[in-house]
Structure formats: structure tokens, C-alpha cells
Amino acid sequence: MPGFPEVRLRRLRQSPALRRMARETRLATDQLILPFFVCPGSGVESPIAALPGVCHHSVDRLVEAARHARADGVGAVLLFGLPESKDATGSSAWSDDGIVQRALRALGAELPGLVKIVDVCFCEYTDHGHCGVLRGERVDNDATLENLARQAVSLAAAGADVIAPSDMMDGRVGAIRRALDQAGHAETPILSYAVKFASAFYGPFREAAGSAPAFGDRRGYQMDPANGREALREAALDVEEGADILMVKPALPYLDVLAALRRRCNLPLAAYHVSGEYAMLRAAADRGMLDYERALMESLLAIRRAGADLIVTYGARDAARLLAAGWSE
Fold this sequence. Notes:
- This protein is α/β, with parallel strands linked by helices.
- The protein has helices spanning 16-22, 59-72, 99-110, 141-158, 172-182, 203-209, 229-241, 255-264, 275-286, 292-306, 316-324, and strands at 32-38, 45-47, 55-57, 76-81, 115-120, 134-135, 138-139, 162-165, 191-196, 245-249, 269-273, 310-313.
- 39% of the residues lie in helices and 16% in strands.
- The strands form two sheets. Strands 1, 2, 3, 4, 5, 8, 9, 10, 11 and 12 form a ten-stranded mixed β-sheet that branches.
- Helix 3 links the parallel strand 4 (76-81) and strand 5 (115-120).
- Helix 2 (59-72) crosses helix 3, helix 4 crosses helix 5 and helix 7 packs across helix 8 (255-264).
């Protein structure tokens, strides 16, 4: 093959127009999913200190915030709930009058066509902060499955478009799929947090969701960051159990896992650009260490390049506005 000087790769980098023409990976607003934290009350839009630009929203203010996000081009949201009360099993998660159930009905009435994805887990709803039913100080996997199924059916009945279990219990996708089908929600898809690592990058989320465990940690059920091959096994099991979309979480520290999964799987893939990843960009930008907009778009492009079809990110509105303005650099 010829080399330099016949081959000059810089030829296609000389102008924004040429770079756009030669670009291999593209980002679009319909690939972005914006998380929201729904809280009790009315008229609440309270900034979250650990997540600059992100707020707790009561249901009425959530509708307005989602309306603005859709006007920016973001067509999908991921909902997390902060309940009025917590107990040992997280029973408010499957209440017909639960905080996320109310949010789903309000969004469905006011913003038809908005894709409403719901997190299915119990860490926000239990008084101990773990993701399921406890036996002593250990999460009982099989006892938790029944409750996850109840939560999923309740959310689907309230209008959820996509059920997204994030608990990392073994067998949860199959249990949820069976429950949804039996309850008449056979067409409701499951976006499984198939590969969720026990990560240090969740810190700001735990403050935002009030979900820090009261004791211990979640390494007994979330994945060991050292394990890549096991991640592929987790994903394969979720495919067998009926998942429609698979997610890798966090995104940037695990691009190798995302790329490996892309090579082996034909399902749509999502990646979660998690709270710590986003907050680092905002904190560094606030200190003048980097350009937030460029760093955000570079991060999202890296996630897309590794194989993600969908990206959950707290910067979804920022990215959508940049794309609408013709961002290309």
C-alpha cells in the first residue's frame, strides 16, 4: 500500500465541511435519553448540588421540564422516584399512587409521543437503601424477583413505554417478562441494565436519589469492575430471558465492554453516561480546566463509536441544543 507523501490523511481534515463529510460516527438527538428525579410536592424544582444543572422535580414541574427538553429535541426520558415513605421492601414502588406512577400519567396526558422509560429497582424505596428484600444483611435474590415483577406491572399499567430493571438480580428479566405478559403488557419492551458495574461513579446519583445503602455496599450483586468476560455472560443471559435492549453502565470506563458486546449482540445497545462522569465535566469546566461543551460531545461520540445506539446522559439537553445549532467540531 502506498504511504506518505502519496497518502496524506490530513486532506480530509482541512475544513469543517470536509470533516463532516468524512465523519464515521454521528450523534443525533433521537439517540439521547434524559434522566429525571421525581419528588413529592407541588411547584418543586430544586437544584441538586452534586449534579449541576439537574433538579428534583415535583410532577407538575416535571411535565414542564420534559416539555422544554422535547422542544430541544430530546424525545425520551428515564424516570427515578423519590417516594413519600420508605419501608423494608420498598412497597411504594408498586403503589398505583406511587410517585413515578403519577408522573407517568401526567406525562402521558400532557406530552403524548414522549418515550417514558422507568427505572425498576428498590434502592430509592427501601429504608435500608439496598436493591431488594433483605435476609439479615444480604439481599435475597429470589424474594426480590416477585417484587420487581409487581413494580414493573404497576409502572406499565400507569403508562410506561419501556421497563428498565437496574437491580442486577439474577433472573429478573425473565421474571419481569412473564409478569408483564400475564398482565396484558406483552408489547412493553424491557431495557435491561444488563452490565451494571459496582462503580465509584454513582456518587452524585446516590445523593440525588437518596439511595445510598445504610450499611455495606452493592458489590454482592453489581458487577466487579475487573470482569469483562463475565459482562458478556450477563448480557447473554438477559437476551435469553427476553430483553429487548441491553445497557452498559457506566459508559466511559467500560467502552471496551460496550465494544465487545456490540460485536457479539444484534440487539439495540444503550450506555449510561452516569452522574459521576457528567459531574466531573461540569466541575472541571467550572474551574476553567476544560470546555464543557466540547468535552461533553467528545464523550458522547466516544460512547457512540464504541457501539451504543442510545445514550442516557444528564447532558442530553445541552447536547441536543448544540446539535440543533449545527455543532460539528
